Amino acid sequence: METQKFKIANAQSSVNWTGKKVTGSHNGTIDIEDGNFSFTNGALTGGKVVIDTTSIKILDVTDPATNQQFAGHLASDDFFSTDKFKTAFLDITAAVKQADDTYFVEGNLTIKAITHPIGFNLEVKNHNDELKASGKIIIDRTKYDMKFRSGNFFTNLGDTLIYNEFELDVDLTARLS
Which residue numbers delimit the Lipid/polyisoprenoid-binding YceI-like domain (predicted)? Predict the structure, then answer.
């Protein structure tokens, strides 16, 4: 049984987020602090990804003052509480091969010290000492104490409602370590 570890190359990897509301959406990026994938006999079996929550950037708000205000709100206790919780974690607990390069990944996602199971499809292309992994992760923010303008917790929000789910589009590069 051969086990290989691949370390995520932060500079060649990206995580793009999208949050939606009644009147549209916002998008941006967030950085990976650290991470790795484990393979046993050529198949994905585990891993961990550490996200730097203090690195959240908003790309679609171009006015500097508005962007700074919005970024401050995302960093506040209404959302990520980045002063208290500087990182979020995804621990991969299982990966089931669906097709040649596609896995259904299960893991535990921890945001604001709150952990919930999560599952998503991940395309993994392994080329000798380097791999590329990409997929979309959909997260219900209300499970992680981010209830601001959620229709589950507040009424009469009208067009100020923010949908509970946000998306992370991940595009990762990792190298054999």
Answer: 5-175
For the record, the structure tokens of 112 come out as: 């604001």
**Dihedral sign for Cα atoms in the order 59, 61, 64, 69:** negative
* Per-residue CA distances from 55 to 82, 86, 119 (Å): 9, 9, 24
- Does 138 have pLDDT greater than 70? yes
Task: Report the alpha-carbon distance of residue 129 to residue 134 in Å, rounded.
Answer: 17
Length of the chain: 177
Asked if 116 and 90 touch (Cβ cutoff 8 Å), the reply is no
Query: pLDDT tens, 90-114?
Result: 999 999 999 889 999 999 999 999 9
pLDDT at 150 over 60: no
Q: What's the CA gap between 98 and 74, in Å, rounded? A: 35
Contact 132, 119 (CB under 8 A): no
- Contact (Cβ atoms closer than 8 angstroms) between residue 153 and residue 161: no
CATH number of 3-149+161-176: 2.40.128.110
Could you give phi then psi for residue 118, rounded to 5 degrees? -145, 150
Tell whether the torsion through CA atoms of 18, 147, 33 and 136 is positive or negative.
Answer: negative
